[in-house]
Amino acid sequence: MWLIPAVDLKGGRAVRLLEGDPARATIYGDPVEAALRFQEEGAGLLHLVDLDRALGTGENREAIRRIAHALSIPFQLAGGIRSLEALREALFLGAGRAVVGTAAVKDPGLLARMLEEAGPERLAVALDARGLEVVAAGWRERTALSALDLLRTWAGMGVRTVIYTDVRRDGTLKGLDLEVVARVREAWPFELIAGGGIASLEDVLALKRLGVEGALLGKALYEGRVRLPELLEVV
Hints:
By secondary structure, the protein is of the alpha/beta class. About 40% of the residues lie in helices and about 30% in strands.
């Protein structure tokens, strides 16, 4: 099972948002230091999110370049990848995999072109939702789409990795809504990474029992609720 620390970037710094709200951000400082800390603690993959790009308030290219230069492990990059040009830039910056959210939800034709260009091994799709109610545009826009319907569509298109985040719980340390994660797991037959509220070893073990292939870890690591080396010993 992958344990994937998340480094969210806003204004060139590592932050965590409460329930996806940019007005409720906790700042953790230099993102390169955070990335190197997780690498030293045994992470095999990092999840970077350019929050400014996702929200349309700027970009964090320089911070991403610095992280890419410092790391010896791969990272995946999310946040505002809504065109072929943005996809190419993400891969050019060094991402082993680009993570597409809004574009995958709103524009199946663009998603198909992205899959053709990058291949399913270098393109993951973000399923951001309040439970099973899909949201888009940096989590600010509610949609009428069903998460389970989208999963079926994406599977038929050739997507092979989905990253599910429960926006209701992200950054809250409230733990997972395991009933919802179980429904996503049942609907998605390929690689599934899940996050949003992970607060303890028990949460990670619960994901493992459900057969989830990866866990996204954020605030719990920054706040010391869990330690990556200890988690790696048991998963």
